[in-house]
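STRUCTURE:
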């Protein structure tokens, strides 16, 4: 399996983790896992398209980079800030504007919305990959 496909598979695994987190009522973990699925999927697309990706965690910036190859990624920028904040907000007490336990910061609704966002981005990322990868694919 090539590197870009490995990153895509990793994103798929993060999305599965997010689904499990949501099913267990672990809203903060579901938000974080959804964020990770998005970030990793976008990096997989950039690996496929350009052979590398910038060393950043910004969902908005990664979406902009991916939109150079498929304008559909531009449709997700409005929500990117909210999902992007879940990177720290779901893990750290002081990871958002107001210190708060991550388990109290996010609701089932937040987790469901983050998962839906990740589902859509992952579907678009998966569509970038050809069904049968050529031998020379990155």
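SEQUENCE:
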């Amino acid at each position: 399996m090539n590197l870009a496909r490995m990153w895509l598979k990793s994103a798929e695994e993060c999305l599965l983790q997010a689904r499990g987190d949501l099913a267990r009522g672990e809203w903060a973990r579901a938000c974080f896992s959804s964020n990770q699925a998005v970030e990793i999927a976008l990096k997989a697309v950039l690996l496929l398209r350009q052979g590398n990706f910038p060393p950043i965690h910004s969902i908005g910036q990664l979406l902009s980079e991916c939109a150079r190859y498929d304008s559909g990624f531009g449709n997700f920028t409005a929500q990117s800030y909210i999902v992007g904040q879940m990177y720290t907000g779901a893990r750290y007490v002081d990871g958002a504007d107001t210190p708060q336990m991550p388990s109290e910061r996010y609701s089932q609704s937040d987790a469901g919305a983050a998962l839906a966002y990740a589902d859509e981005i992952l579907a678009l990322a998966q569509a970038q990959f050809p069904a049968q990868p050529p031998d020379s694919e990155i």
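REMARK: Helices lie at 3-23, 27-50, 59-67, 77-89, 102-105, 108-127.
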